[in-house]
Amino acid sequence: MKKIITATLSLAACLLFTSSGFADYESKLARELASWVKKDLNKTYGNFPIKVDDKISLTNISSKGPTIIYDYRYKAKSVKFSQKDVDSFSELLFDEELCQNEEIVSFFKEKDIEWVNRFTFKDKKTMSSSFHIKDICDKISTNDF
Q1: What is the residue range of the signal peptide feature (predicted)?
Q2: Fewer CB within 10 Å of terminal CB in the chain, N or C?
């Protein structure tokens, strides 16, 4: 799953990076990236929800402003998880290979696009974790991951 998202984001960012129509519009850019990734995942894995493992499914990808939102459903009650747990799990979902692609990192830094992983639990509670590529790549490079 990580490799598919990496390949999809890499291609989408490269295509959009060279498009002057998107250069100054982070909100439009995030919307287009989210839409493109969603279509690609639909094509690869079928309709949403997409099963990640026995307890978690990716239910949607959308955007709001300069933010790409990944919605997940988790088959457990939220009382088992702290915000730190959700943040750690979000870091695990991030494919660190993205940090090795200078064009992708530069693109997301320049456009200041944020990722949000939003988890809805069995008891309907929602918890989110957000990050920018600079923060997570810096964390990976210092082995704080």
Answers
A1: 1-23
A2: C
